[in-house]
Amino acid sequence: MGSLFNFNKEGKGVTKEDVAAETPLKRFFVEFVHRFWQLILLNLLYVVACIPIITVGPATAAMNYVCRNFSQAKPVFFFPDFIEKCKEHFKQGLAVWMIQLLTGGLLVFAFLGWTDSAFQVSGGLRTAAVVVILVFAYLLICSSFYIYPMMVSFDLTVKQLIRNSVILAMTQLWRNLVILVVLGILVVVSFLFWPLTFPVLLFLAFTLMAYVSNSLVFPVLKRLVATPSDASESSDQSAE
Hints:
11 helices, about 80% helix, globular
């Protein structure tokens, strides 16, 4: 039982040859089973770290760093690395979170305004406005799949993070769809069976989503965003 809570001890892991021989789908399930209890503990840590609302951005960045390494079968000590990445990406995480919060609030306000029956506009204009709002909402949600993994993987400014994440949200349609389906299932099940699903949110939901999204988006980030220096650094970390 003691080894379960030894945050600084890695398991036996896998060799580079084992990882190279695995398909992405096989690695997804192998690593998920291997890291299952760590994902639960990481989810609890993330929930606690998000209690001060201002820390949601940095905590999300740190969670994505750990889940990125989990999904790529890279070594990581999730408790100390989570704390370190929270500190390292505090400013960027806070800035991105504030932008997301403000943008999301404006979109909700706009949607409620344009769908209010008291707002006297033509049906065609109302429909067009709602469609535009929904498109922006889609981009906001899907860009979040990419922005935090990029934040913890590459040396980019907030402006570059936002630009790249929006471009990826517009172009990586099938990846977005898969992640949205998983997210939608979690949300629908949580609402339908609330409060029975509260333990799922507390113990697994957030890290499960981060694990799924990083498994899908990190390969494309390495291909489209990484610079030669990023690739070299990634190789060095894998060799550790």
